[in-house]
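Mods, move this if it's the wrong board.
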Amino acid sequence: MVSDVRRVLGSNLPGIALTGLMLVSIPLALATAAVGWAALTALVVAAGQFAEWYTRRDEFDKLHRVLARASFDVHLRSALRTAAMPVLLLGLAESAPLVIATWCAWLLWLMVSAIGLLTAARELNQAGAAARGLGVKALEPRVGSDPTSGNWPHTAAVLVLAALAQWSAEAAWLGAAGITAVSAVYLYSLARRIQRTLRLSGTRRMKAINKALREYRPEVVLYAGGQASTGYQSNVWLPTLDGLDQRVLVIFQNPALWNELKPSKTPVICVQKAAEYLTLDVSSVKLVMFPGNNGNNINLLRLPHLRTTFIGHGDSDKLASVNPFTKVYDEIWVAGQAGQDRYGTAGVPIPADHFVHVGRPQLTQLARKLAAAPPRQRTGTPTVLYAPTWEGWTTEEHHTSLVRCGVQIVKALQAAKPGVRIIFRPHPLTGTRSAAAAAALKAVIDLLPESDISYPGQGELYDCFAEADLMITDVSSVVSDFLFTDKPYSVVNTSGLSDEDFVAENPSISASYLIDGNLNGLAAALDAARADEFDVLAEKRHALRTYILGPTGSDEPFQKAVDQAIALNDLKEKKRVTV
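Not the wrong board. Structure tokens:
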């Protein structure tokens, strides 16, 4: 755990100091309490609780995840630290009311923490009927918030009051009253939250959601039926959805995604149970977009009045991009001609009129970042982005280079002469299915300072693109998007295929500097990053960009596709009504 904490904090001196205070205060508080040093005990407890409160900020999120994995989360830390005060007051027979009140308050705090965590778990279970952005406060999700997390400053204040009160018998009553009052206020707040959780359960939540939907009348829906950790599939579309002319709604099924979806102005609802979709009011909806293929999509695919389209969550040559399941949709929206050709190459027959070329509207964000970035200095130290994909759903190990040669790639980059700067950007799902991938991910992270790691959900991928002079990756959607930058890129071939066959199966890598499992080809890629004269694939990359990305650089093709799909749906519904 110590090495993980050190790696997470890096050179963050305030973070190191606060973490040290947070951890050291526990044994120190108990020790000073045992010998009766009241003032010092109160000071240590208050300082430790302040450190707990301060490090709840976003920049310390990784630290708390490391501590939680070590079964040393905030609840256990605070329980141990605040136990110092009842221990301290055990010897104060003359302040019996204060001793009793302090012990009761501490035991009450433990009970309240347990109840609060159970409440959070219940809210997670019920979050299938929750909404954000529809103007119904009672339906706002509380998933991920800790009902006891706001208690730390109050606890510290009460404990300090208790310690000071021991020096005066009269003040003892004040201390007892203060503890009782704060405990009562906190219990009242928790009771209100529990009441809210119980009151808005089941059918009442669905009725409230349906009422809000009838008032909002969404025309377009993005439906995400995926598991936890798939929020990125929707996140890539949120800025585009925010800019549409139509009223848009995001619907997802797994409540864990509340903690993954980025803020947006588009309203979001979570409907968890399949039976609830039978009563969900989507009568105003005309078009449903699906960013992923999974069985839960049937919840909306079964409705005949909706026009459906598969939009995916990135353009790539992976087999997932030619899933035969895609035949169930009315339309398939792809970036460019390459997205359409992949189906024919893979032997998945789909009529040509089912395809709509919409470009990659997300790349307007990348265009802005590239325009704002300083001019590339080809004479300085180049920045290399290593962005491997994840292990995938199958047992084949060649999906990600991370397992086979990730450590070797990073070590080779660290040893490169002249030197390079490294950015490591793993896929959000890395290590979720394969223990080998999880181990490889940890091994690479251990090689790098924290400043060289861009974790999904914290740093933007397109920011990494803007900084990089070269990208090393696997067959994935980042290849297609990186083509937009016109910068050199490398793809690692660990498939066992010859380079010729590998390129034939994956057209998006045909303008890449291929690297094999022994890192042959890495030197040529680094040369291309250092000087234009060595970048022999520049023209080929530029030509490939149009084939892969299509009409990219504007939201207009996507908006036009939405308008046309809605018009076709209106025409179909008009014919159905008149028949």
